[in-house]
Specification:
By secondary structure, the chain is an alpha+beta fold. It folds into two domains: 160 residues, no CATH class; 92 residues, LytTr DNA-binding domain (OB fold (Dihydrolipoamide Acetyltransferase, E2P)). It contains nine helices and eight strands. The protein has a five-stranded antiparallel β-sheet. A three-stranded antiparallel β-sheet has the order 6-7-8.
Length: 288
């Protein structure tokens, strides 16, 4: 059997990419572009000197390289500190602060170029490097944006950001599971942690997303509910509502509530039961 080169998985590990979808484009390109446009239209000094086009161009240059530097530096810290596995917030903070320090020469050069192109030298303006106060303010703003955006993409968009749990599941685990004959449904591959089909206790449809319940916690992933249910067709479960699927083995009881029926799972989760599905739930409980 031909050996697999370690270069490709290590490159994916460094860039924190497995496959590109809209979330990656939004994170790596959309976010810095939005930050740049917002900054460009809110700095009247730069707008007056360079106009809207020059201001947007200036802040685009100010946003993209620092953002990508933060991505690589945070990933570097993650590998350096892997032995101790610090919490996600500490990794994000270390990454953005280090990136701010590394990017200072670039931002000073960019400001110098801007002043040369758009500011009249006779006005008495000359390129000035970052002062300590300005660097501190810049690092604080950058850290707040970096942390909030990463947590948003991690928690709500299903794009794991700089968590050891996510990395360990991304690199190599799928091959090991496949070799062991364990199939991971496609919608579970997008979760930030490794979850197999037999660990799923319930599914809940939330617009274009599906919330996946396990015994330990729940996850939100981008998927159609009907697709997720179809991918679990080999599992002993029931769709009990147009928005809920539950594993029959984990149903604790069928309860009568005011104006509705619910199934209570062993974890305490309660899912509504539509009329057409109630008989199926009662049959499953009776058989068990």
């Amino acid at each position: 059997m031909a050996s697999v080169s370690p270069i490709r998985p290590n490159l994916r590990l460094l860039l924190h990419l497995k496959r590109l979808d809209w979330r990656h484009w939004a994170f790596f390109l959309g976010v810095p572009a939005l930050v740049a446009v917002y900054a460009a239209v809110n700095n009247w000094t730069v707008l007056e000197a360079a106009g809207i086009g020059g201001s947007v161009l200036f802040y685009l240059a100010h946003a993209f390289l620092p953002w990508w530097t933060s991505c690589l530096v945070t990933r570097g810290w993650m590998e350096v500190l892997r032995r101790w596995q610090p919490p996600q917030l500490l990794l994000l903070l270390l990454g953005t602060v280090t990136a701010c320090l590394l990017i200072v020469p670039y931002t000073n050069w960019l400001t110098s170029v801007f002043q040369t192109l758009w500011i009249n030298p006779s006005d008495g303006h000359s390129p000035q490097p970052f002062t300590l106060a300005e660097l501190t303010s810049y690092a604080i703003r950058a850290s707040v944006i970096w942390i909030i955006v990463n947590l948003l993409f991690d928690r709500y968009f299903g794009l794991p950001r700089y968590r050891y749990e996510a990395t360990d599941s991304e690199v190599g685990n799928r091959r090991a599971l496949a070799a062991a004959g364990i199939r991971i449904p496609r919608f579970l591959e997008r979760l930030p942690a490794r979850v197999t089909a037999d660990e799923v206790i319930a599914l809940k449809a939330e617009q274009h997303y599906v919330r996946v319940y396990t015994a330990k916690r729940d996850y939100l992933t981008l998927s159609r509910f009907s697709d997720a249910v179809k991918e679990l067709d080999s599992q002993p479960g029931l769709q009990v509502h147009r928005s809920y699927w539950v594993r029959t083995a984990n149903i604790k009881s069928l309860l009568r509530k005011p104006k509705k029926w619910v199934v209570e799972m062993e974890t305490g989760l309660q899912a509504p039961v539509s009329g057409p599905y109630r008989a199926l739930v009662q049959q499953a409980l009776g058989e068990r």
